[in-house]
Each structure stands twice: as structure tokens, then as C-alpha cells.
Fold:
Amino acid sequence: MSVDVAVVGCGIIGAAVAWRLSRLGLTVACLDPAPGDGATHAAAGMLADVTEADFGEDHLTALNVASARAWPEFAAELSDATGADLAFRRTGTLTVAYDSGDRQQLRRLLTLRRGLGLPVEEIAVDDARRMEPLLGPRLAGATWTADEHQVDPRRVHAALLAVLADRGVAVVRRRVTELSLTPSGEVGGVVDDRGTRHRAGSVVLAAGWASRELARALPGLAGVPTRPVKGQILRLDASGQPGFTLGRVVRGFVQARAVYLVPRPGGEVVVGATSEEQPDDRQVTAGGTFAVLRDARALVPGIDELPLTELTARARPGSPDNLPLIGDSGIPGLLLATGHYRNGILLAPLTASALAARYGAGTVPEWAAAADPRRFAATVTGGPT
Structure:
């Protein structure tokens, strides 16, 4: 097989990139042994450009805001192309504080976010309870972000696979074990776990945290410092409980621990998530499950009566500064689209647009400069090709 671009990894990032590149008229293949079974499978789908804004992450917040603005068009185009319902909707986010210490943290974040010009307001606890009557009796503070959206990542990914098939993009269900070099030192394809060589004019590495493993063997590449950050997430079923109704995403702090509940159409409630700096073992633990449920029920006690339908553990692809790596790697022929950490679903449209601009116009847009992978390089070998 020989294509213009081989995309390694076919989660939501790799699939979105492959879609956009195919629309440029490029021949594209996407290689992944289990497309969408990584972080995409576990993700809650909060498009939380405001409520994810944190201290020291102004560049990331700017990327998140830009990508959130791109989501309505991205969702509409994907739905129009496939007829799929992506469960993309504006629900807003209600963030609550459990005790006085949590209220102080919430107000610090409120000040930060207002200072960045983000639309968020402090509201009275009584007003929060009127918005969501299922909130528990012990709350110390609340903020409201009206314009945040959510989407179902599994539906989005299924739609992306459908549109890739329609556009003739090959989805190769094999694990890539090696990035292959041409005699001139450029990346010119990949080798899979059967030893099959897939030639390509260039390669986009979108393999989540495992991107570092593939990049490590390349001479002259100073680093792709992605790492696994395990998250355990739960799914509950409220469809048989007519008295249990959440209309908005509920996030909160419980004695300094963050937790969220995301209501889905049809009665599903996604609850998460742990954040564990350890290998991608996919093992759901009693401690992780207890921690998530303990904090969620502190905010919404009514979840006690809901059936627990799914426990999932996956590794998010973290980076040292929590910014993704988008663009040229410094090795000719190799581009990166990885390291999105907690924001892979949110940043999918922006990442795909940035890579499409790189292939179409020859450069990644200036607005994506903060995500340049070469910021981690001690030396830069080569340049954009």
C-alpha cells in the first residue's frame, strides 16, 4: 500500500485528521488495531472550554475556546455527511462547591476565568438548586457557564469511521510497530505488527500517549514526551427512574477533588473521573470506582438508586505542559497530532483544521503555534517539509 499520508492512530483525533486531509484530495490510510478503543471510548464528551480553564494554562485555554467555536460547524458537517445524531447539544455547565474550602477554589477559578474574558457567573446556591433540584443539601457555592456544549464521543467516532469509508480512506486494523525512514532520512511510511510496510509521502502520528514509543527510535528526534494518565469513568442508567432528571452538566469540587456528571439523551449519566499517573493497564479498581461514586453522590445523592452499567479505564495522553503536540516534529515527513490529555474530544476540530492547513498551505496556522511539538526539542533537526 502506498498513500499520500498515513495516520497512525484512529481515535477521534486521528480519524478527524484523516477526514480533513481526504477532503484536500489526498490519499489517506489510518492504522489502528482497535479504532476508537482508547481514550475516545472512555471520554465523557464535555466541550468545556470555560470550565477546563486553569491557572498557568492560558495558551491551552485559547486553543480550547477556538475549538469549541469550531464544534457546531464540525458537528453539522459530520451529521450532514452521515445522517448520524451525535448528541451534540448546548446544556451549559453548573459547577458547585461542597464546602467552604471548595468555595474558595471555585471563586479563585471564577476570578481567573473572568480575567480571561470567559463567560461565567457566580450564582446563589438556591438558584443552583432551582436549576437542578437533585443537587444535595450540602453545598457552599456555585457558578454557571451557559454556553458550554457536550457531545457523545462514541457516536462521533462511529460517524467519522463511516465518513472515512465513504471517502475511500483505508482503515487498517493493524498495530504500527515502526516508523520507516527513506535513504535520505525522511519518514516515508510505517511497518505494522505483521511486518507489512505501508509507504506514505508523510506520516501523522496520532497514537495517543503511545506516540512516544514509536517516535523514540527515530534518530534526531529530541522527544515526543507523551505519557499515560489513567482515568476511571462510570456510566449509570437513569432511564428507568422518572424522578431522576439532570438537564445540565454538573461539575464540582468535593474537599478539593474534582468530579463531574454528564447527562445523556436516553437516560445515561456519565460520571468521572480519576486521574492517575501510571501505565495504561485498563484495570478498573475498587478504590477508583469508590472515589468517583463517593464524590458524585456528595453532589447528587440520587445516583444511589441508579443501575451501574459500565466501568471503564483508559489512559489519556498527557504532555509536560498539558498542551497538545500539533504540527511538524522536526523530522522531515513526520507530523504530530497527540498529547491532548483531557481535551481530545474538544480539540478534535482544531487539530484537524491545523493539520489540513499544514498540508494545504504548507504551514500550521499561527493560532496553533503554542502547540508546536518542537518546543520540547533540545535541537531541531530538519524543518517543515
In short: The first strand starts at residue 2 and ends at 8. Residues 379-385 have pLDDT under 50 and may be disordered.
